[in-house]
Amino acid sequence: MALTQANQTLLERRRKALGPAYAHFYRDPVHLVRGEGVWMWDDDGRKYLDCYNNVASVGHCHPAVVEALHTQAQRLNTHTRYLHASVVEYAEMLADIMPGDISVSNIVCTGSEANDLACQIARKVTGNTGLIILKDTYHGATTLVRELSPAIRPEPCPDYVYEIDVPDTYRGPGADDPAAFLAHHKDQIKTAIGKLQARGHGVAALLIDSIYDGPGIFAPPPSYQRELFAQVRAAGGLIIADEVQSGLCRLGDHYWGVMDSGVVPDIITMGKPMGDGHPLAVTATTPDIMKAYVDKGGEYFNTFAGNPVSAEVGKAVLRIVEQENLLSHVKETSDYLMTRLRVIADKHPIIGDLRGKGFFIALEFVRDKADKTPDGDACLTAVEWMKDNGVLVSRIGTEGNIMKIRPPLVFAKEHVDLLVETLDRALLTL
Ligand SMILES: Cc1ncc(COP(=O)(O)O)c(C=O)c1O
User: Fold this and answer.
1) What is the DSSP string of 191-249?
2) Cα distances (angstroms) measured from residue 250 to each of 61, 133, 271, 348
3) Does the CB atom of residue 48 touch ligand 1 within 6 A?
4) What is the tens place of the pLDDT at every residue in 120-166?
């Protein structure tokens, strides 16, 4: 749908005022002005089903979140250098839903800061500097985590970082053979540890996702996670679970996707969904790790993070997740979604693979199912067609051929029906 003259002007003003570093979705960006639950409206009153935004976790503009924000903003907003009950209550609520001994929360504002702090903690506590990450992943935008984000880093991999293969269950080594798959990734982590030790860095941490978004939405089997964790721990490193995308019930079985592996990590980082759109993120770890960090000279302060307004917003989000049973809701609705998508994937030969977990799903577009050649053009056409017909999804992958479906947690069966029917119609146009 072509931009109106008013929106063309707004886009030009945006390019001038924000500069060229800002990207936008879709050939012609959507000008959104209002949201409610899983719905958003553009400036022309057109309604869209949001099948993409994980930040509005409990739904756009949830009334209880808006109320919490409004009430506290009217009262007081300061920082954590003063005593205030809200941030303590928030951290206590988080501790109740954390696995194992993880019970201490450092509140930050973004997922980037959460991962940055996690790496600082791991380095200080272990005395090592080496960090293991996966190829093509993204962990944020500070100087440190940008270097840990091959998805956006054009520079060569720094010496203290080692990148291992993504657990690509579609095209990667051992994709058709679980034993070969595990053997390959066992070998990868062994090599990474050996290289970082040989370079004199040792291993401070393995920074993992529970589901790999950027490289194409791959959810590794629990055996994979367990093997990697064991080898890194044996080498003296910590496990940092980046739950910025996968956390807060998104994968449907646990609050934190990493727990699908059955192994508790050392640090969990959270971001996007925690504030339902408000900038709220967390680096959570065990009391022992936090004590070791402080004993070795570590400290943390962040002017805006953990302020009473953010804390009240965070509390409201956690209350809604519990009151609306969103963990079981995601599981049940996702099973329904996957069943319906399987029918679509079997009907349209252009869909080479359907994968994912919970509300984090990929449909891979290929020219030919046998040779798996990516078809980015077809995926682009389908995504644009769906947008023009009121359903928002997006695409990822180096070839742009993977449709990403990642709706708010409150997405229900009636929304699944609309999504699947629109997708089916989009695929018939190709
Ligand atoms: C897995 C993951 N980690 C960290 C981040 C960084 O979060 P933020 O944009 O809040 O800094 C992102 C953002 O997309 C992410 O996807």
Assistant:
1) HHHHHHHHTT----EEEEESSBTTTT-B---HHHHHHHHHHHHHTT-EEEEE-TTTTTT
2) 19, 22, 13, 27
3) no
4) 999 999 999 999 999 999 999 999 999 999 999 999 999 999 999 99
CA distances to 12, 129, 318, 355, 371 from 178, rounded to whole Å, are 51, 32, 37, 16, 20
* pLDDT mean across residues, the chain: 97
Asked if residue 186 lies in contact with residue 227, where contact means CB atoms within 8 angstroms, the answer is yes
Residue 114 near residue 269, CB atoms below 8 Å: yes
Q: Which of 25, 53, 108, 112 maximizes ligand 1 atoms within 8 Å of its Cβ, making it the mutation to test the pocket?
A: 112
Q: What is the largest CA-CA distance in the chain?
A: 63
User: What pLDDT score does 127 carry?
Assistant: 98
pLDDT in tens, 97-116: 999 999 999 999 999 999 99
Q: Contact at 8 Å (CB) between 243 and 260?
A: no
Give the residue, out of 52, 138, 147, with the most ligand 1 atoms within 8 A of its beta carbon, to mutate for a pocket test: 138
Q: b/e string for 382-398 if b means 16 or more Cβ within 10 A?
A: bbbbbbebebbbbbbbe
Q: What domains can you pick out in the chain, each with its CATH number?
A: 5-58+325-428 (3.90.1150.10), 63-323 (3.40.640.10)
370 contacts 9 by C-beta, under 8 angstroms: no
Tokens of 76: 């007081």
Q: Choose one of 55, 244, 245, 248 to mutate for the ligand 1 pocket test, by most ligand atoms within 8 angstroms of C-beta.
A: 244
**Helix (H) / strand (E) containing 311:** helix 308-323
Q: Whose CA is nearest to atom 2 of ligand 1?
A: 139
CA-112 nearest atom, ligand 1: 11
User: What confidence category does residue 374 fall into, taking pLDDT thresholds of 50, 70 and 90?
Assistant: very high
Record the tokens describing residue 231, joined without a space.
Answer: 């080898």
